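Person: Please work through this fold.
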Amino acid sequence: MHDFRKSLVNSALRKVLKRLHYPLEVMLICVRWYVAYPLSLRHIEEMMQERGVFVDHATVHRWAIKMVPVLAAVFRRRKHPVGKSWRMDETYIKVAGEWKYLYRAVDREDDTVNFLLTTKRDLAAARRFLERAIKRITRPMLGFKSFWSARIIIAGIETIHMIRKGLLDCPAGSTLSAADQFYSLAV
């Protein structure tokens, strides 16, 4: 694994990490596992304890809420262009007991162009999404407790999906794994 402490180029991530008391490597692993795999926060807590790292599931959730927006923003800056022709998918996600709508725009190669989580299913929301988009995700967890945190976690899930699809602009000849590409967003 790379030494992530070398240089944090992103000042926003530096601000997020300022008050966090765990090594960056531990936080990134927990956040990546949470957005990349169908694991609950308690699963991650247990897996980390097996590795000798004692971290509470609520702490992992706080890390995800603080780090994912910064990592997703870095990803958007480093994402390579997608095809010009694309379509939109819609799915439903339960947040705090109510159905919310997740729209995803994908190109012909099924590369994600953009995504939007909205409280309403209406033409205006879809139109806003399509205008901004120029530039099976839920998992066995206890569910989203708020729309705000659902939006953040889904951004992380979509980011890792786009990394797996090869949408991160990496140096030519680079053979980084999806995990290392995710971690590279922090440096």
In short: The helical segments are 11-17, 24-36, 41-50, 57-78, 123-132, 147-164, 178-184. The longest strand covers residues 86-95.
